[in-house]
Write a structure and sequence with these properties.
25 helices; Rossmann fold; 7-stranded parallel β-sheet; globular; about 700 residues; binds magnesium ion; binds adenosine-5'-diphosphate
C-alpha cells in the first residue's frame, strides 16, 4: 500500500491549515490525521431525543428541550444579580437560571424565539429549574436532523482562541471522517478476536467513537478501542519479558544451604506468615530456573517484606554469590544495615554499608573487600550502582521502596553482574493498584504479600479539627506517660521557595506551641526538616530512635521506612494537603510494636470533596491495596507515586481506574497469543505483527527499560 492516509500531516486537513496545525501540535500532540482520529471525546451529550417539560423529574442526567423563551428577567443587583428565564413547550413551563455570564446571556437571548435548551433539571425550593443550560436557537439542523450523542473534546485556552473549542474540534473531526469514508483503515486485530468478543471492525469503531449512532454502538466502539489499547501494551510487555527470559541466562541458585538453614533454625525471630512463605517459594523457584529473575514484591506497609528479602539473599549466598540491598535514603539504608547485621550475627556473614558519605580510605578498603568477595551483603543508597562499585559476583540485587528509583537505575544494576545479570527483586513502599502494577511492571513477575503478621492491632484512625486540639494534646500526654512516643508530621510541598518557607514556618510554630504544652525537662522534642544538614537530621532522628525524645516533629522525611516500634501515636497536621498513599505510608510508621496505636488526622473544618474522601477512606480502612484503589480513582493513574512522567499510563481511551476487567482480559489474551505464537508468525496473527512493526519507536523505548 502506498502512503497511509492516517500518516498525512494535519495541516493538510481542510479546516485546519498551518496556524491551527501548529497549535494542535503543541497543545495536543496532534501531528497527523491518525493523531486527530485518536483524540477521542471524553464524554458525550445526549441529544438523541427531546424531553417534554411536563415529564421532567429532578435527576442526575441532562435533558434536551425544545420550546420558546417567554420571559427573561434580571433579578437582584451587583454580585448577586441573576437572570431568570421562563421557557415553555407544549406541555409546561420551566425556569432557567444564570448566575454567571449574565450580561452576555442577556444580550444573546431574545424573548419569543424558539430555542433548544440542554441541561440538568434540579429541584430548588420545591420547583424544578435548570441552572446554566446550554441554549441554541432552534434550527432544522438541531431539531430534525442531527439528533445524536454529541461528542465533547478536551481543548485548551490556546486552542479555543483559534476556534478549536470542543465544538470546533468536532467540526474538524467531521471533516476528517468524511475524508476517511472511502479510505482503507487496516484492521489490527485478528478476525478470531472480532468474532470471539463481537468487536466492530476497527474502522467502524473509529467512526462510532466520534459520532455514535446510539449508546449501544458507542459502548461497543469504546469496548473495542479500550481493549485494543490495553492489549497491544500487554503484548509488548509480555513479549519483552519472553524475549528476555529466552535470551538471557540467569545464575542458577540450585540449593538451599547452611546460611539459609541455620538462619531459619536459630535466628528467625518469629513464624513466617503463609504469604511470606509462598512468596519466598516463588522467588526461589525463579532464581533456580536458569532465567534471570525480575520480580516485583508488593505488600502493605508492615507486611514483612524485609525478612523475605533477607531470606532470598541467604539463598544467593548459599550458592556462593554476593547480594546488595539498595534503599532510597541514607537513614533507611542505615536502618536496614543495622537490623540485618543484627539478625545474621554469628552466622559468619559479612555485611557492609556504603553511601555517598562513606569516603576516602574507608571507601577504598570497602571496595577492595567487595571486589575480592569478602563482603556477602552490601547495603546502601544509590551509591551501590555507581560505576566505581565493583562486585566479585553479584547474584541478587534488591531494591527497597521502588518509587524513588527510576527505570534507569534498575537497568544499571544489570551491568553489575559478571557472566549474567543479577536477579532483581523490587520491593514497593506501598501497594499500588493491580491494574497499575500490570502496566508499570507488566514485564516483571509479581508476588504479593496479602497478609499481615499475626497479633497486629489495627491502628485506630481518628479525624479531628482545631476544636479538638487540647484533647489531642491530652491524649498524647497519656500515651507518653505509658512510655510511648509520638510523631507529629507537617506537610512539605516542594514547589516554590516561598511555599517551602511557609511550610517551615508552620512546622516551627507547631514546635513552639508544642514546647509550651510539653515543657522540658519532662518532655523532650526532636525536630527534623528538609532544611537541616544531613548530619543534624541524623542526630535528631537517632535521639528519637533511641527513645531520648518522646515527640518527633517532622516533615515527610520520616515517610520512608523508619522503624521505631515504641512509637504509638501519629499526629498528622493539615491532613487535607497529603495524598492518600502518603497518609497510609505515614500511618505505617506506628503500629509496629505490640501496643494499640493511633493515627490522628488534624484538618481544617472546611474540606474539599476529595479531601473529605481521603480522610474518610483513612478512617475506614487500614488496607493499603484498598487505599491505593481510591487514590487512583481520585487522582487518576498518572499521578500515583512512581508513575509520574513515566508516560506509561497516558492512554487515549483506557482508564486503569475503571477498566480493570478489560485489562485482565487483554493480558490473558496476550499471554495466550504469545504462548501459541511467540514471534507472531502465524498467518492469522499477521494484523498484530503488521501493527507492531509500524510502532518501532515505541518498541525501542521499551527496550531501553530492560
Ligand atoms: P515492610 O513490608 O513495610 O517493609 P518490614 O519488613 O519492615 O515491613 O516489617 C515490619 C515489622 O514486622 C518488622 O518489625 C518485622 O520484624 C516484623 N515482622 C515481619 N514478619 C513477621 C512475622 N511473620 N511475624 C511477626 N513479625 C514480623
Ligand atoms: Mg520496608
Amino acid at each position: 500500500m502506498s502512503q497511509n492516509i492516517l500518516d498525512t500531516k494535519i495541516e493538510f486537513l481542510k479546516g485546519v491549515g498551518p496556524q491551527r496545525a501548529d497549535i494542535l501540535k503543541t497543545e495536543l500532540q496532534i501531528f497527523k490525521f491518525g493523531d486527530l482520529l485518536q483524540h477521542y471525546p471524553f464524554r458525550y451529550v445526549d441529544k438523541t431525543k427531546f424531553h417534554t417539560i411536563k415529564g421532567l423529574v429532578a435527576d442526575n442526567y441532562a435533558v434536551q428541550l425544545k420550546g420558546v423563551l417567554r420571559r427573561l428577567d434580571s433579578v437582584g443587583s451587583g454580585r448577586g444579580r441573576r437572570l431568570v428565564g421562563r421557557f415553555r413547550d407544549e406541555t409546561g413551563t420551566i425556569e432557567l437560571v444564570w448566575f454567571k455570564g449574565v450580561t452576555w446571556i442577556e444580550k444573546k437571548l431574545v424573548v419569543g424565539v424558539q430555542y433548544v435548551v440542554y441541561g440538568k433539571p434540579t429541584l430548588y425550593k420545591g420547583r424544578l429549574n435548570i441552572t446554566h443550560p446550554e441554549v441554541e436557537p432552534a434550527t432544522t439542523a438541531n431539531t430534525e436532523h442531527a439528533l445524536t450523542l454529541e461528542p465533547v473534546y478536551h481543548s485548551t485556552g490556546k486552542l479555543e482562541n483559534k476556534g478549536l473549542d470542543s465544538r470546533g474540534i468536532m467540526k474538524v473531526q467531521r471533516i476528517l471522517q468524511n475524508k476517511l469514508r472511502d479510505a482503507p483503515i487496516a484492521e489490527n486485530l485478528p478476525t478470531y478476536f472480532l468474532e470471539k468478543f463481537k468487536f466492530p471492525a476497527r474502522k467502524k469503531a473509529l467512526t462510532d467513537i466520534h459520532f455514535p449512532g446510539s449508546t449501544a454502538l458507542l459502548a461497543t466502539a469504546q469496548n473495542r478501542l479500550k481493549f485494543e489499547e490495553l492489549f497491544f501494551l500487554q503484548l509488548k510487555l509480555l513479549s519483552l519479558k519472553t524475549k528476555r527470559q529466552t535470551a538471557l541466562k540467569g545464575h542458577v541458585f540450585s540449593q538451599v544451604g547452611e546460611y539459609f538453614n541455620s538462619f531459619y533454625k536459630e535466628k528467625l525471630p518469629f513464624e513466617l506468615t503463609d504469604a511470606q512463605k509462598r512468596v519466598i517459594k516463588e522467588i526461589r523457584r525463579d532464581m533456580g530456573s536458569g532465567a534471570q529473575m525480575n520480580r516485583l514484591l508488593q505488600g502493605d506497609v508492615g507486611s514483612g517484606k524485609t525478612i523475605v528479602g533477607l531470606m532470598c539473599m541467604l539463598i544467593a549466598m548459599d550458592n556462593g554469590f554476593q547480594c546488595c540491598l539498595m534503599a532510597p535514603t541514607e537513614i533507611l539504608a542505615q536502618q536496614h544495615y543495622e537490623s540485618i547485621s543484627e539478625s545474621v550475627e554469628g552466622l559468619g556473614i559479612q555485611v557492609a554499608f556504603l553511601s555517598g558519605s562513606v569516603k576516602g580510605k574507608k571507601r577504598k578498603q570497602l571496595l577492595e573487600v567487595l571486589a575480592n568477595g569478602d563482603i556477602h551483603i552490601l547495603i546502601g543508597t544509590h551509591a551501590l550502582i555507581e560505576d566505581w562499585v565493583v562486585y566479585k559476583n553479584l547474584g541478587l540485587a534488591i531494591i527497597d521502596e521502588q518509587h524513588r528509583f527510576g527505570v534507569a537505575q534498575r537497568a544499571s544494576l544489570w551491568k553489575k553482574g559478571i557472566g549474567a545479570p543479577p536477579h532483581i527483586l523490587v520491593m514497593t513502599a506501598t501497594p499500588i493498584p493491580r491494574t497499575l502494577a500490570m502496566t508499570l511492571y507488566g514485564d516483571l513477575d509479581i508476588s504479593v504479600i496479602d497478609e499481615l503478621p499475626p497479633g497486629r492491632k489495627d491502628i485506630v484512625t481518628l479525624h479531628k479539627t482545631e476544636n479538638g486540639r487540647l484533647r489531642v494534646f491530652g491524649f498524647m500526654k497519656e500515651e507518653i506517660a505509658k512510655g510511648r512516643q509520638v510523631y507529629v508530621v507537617y506537610p512539605l510541598i516542594e514547589e516554590s521557595e516561598s511555599e517551602q518557607l511557609a511550610d517551615l514556618n508552620n512546622l516551627m510554630e507547631g514546635y513552639e506551641s508544642l514546647s509550651r504544652d510539653f515543657p522540658k525537662p519532662d518532655y523532650q522534642i526532636s525536630v527534623v526538616h528538609g532544611r537541616m544538614k544531613a548530619k543534624d537530621k541524623d542526630f535528631e532522628m537517632q535521639r528519637f530512635v533511641k527513645g531520648e525524645t518522646q515527640i518527633m516533629i517532622a516533615t515527610t522525611v520520616i515517610e520512608v521506612g523508619v522503624n521505631v516500634p515504641n512509637a504509638s501515636v501519629m499526629v498528622i497536621e493539615n491532613t487535607e494537603r497529603f495524598g492518600l498513599s502518603q497518609l497510609h505510608q505515614l500511618r505505617g510508621r506506628v503500629g509496629r510494636g505490640a501496643e494499640q496505636s493511633y493515627c490522628i488526622l488534624m484538618s481544617s473544618f472546611k474540606l474539599s470533596k476529595d479531601g473529605k474522601k481521603r480522610i474518610e477512606t483513612m478512617c475506614r480502612t487500614n488496607n493499603g491495596f484498598e487505599i491505593s484503589e481510591v487514590d487512583m480513582e481520585l487522582r487518576g493513574p498518572g499521578n500515583i507515586q512512581g508513575t509520574e512522567q513515566s508516560g506509561m499510563v497516558d492512554f487515549h481511551i483506557a482508564n486503569l481506574a475503571t477498566d480493570g476487567r478489560i485489562l485482565q482480559t487483554a493480558r490473558e489474551i496476550a499471554t495466550r497469543v504469545l504462548e501459541d505464537d511467540p514471534k507472531l508468525e502465524k498467518p492469522h496473527h499477521s494484523p498484530l505483527r503488521r501493527y507492531l512493526e509500524k510502532d518501532k519507536k515505541y518498541l525501542t523505548t521499551w527496550g531501553r527499560i530492560s
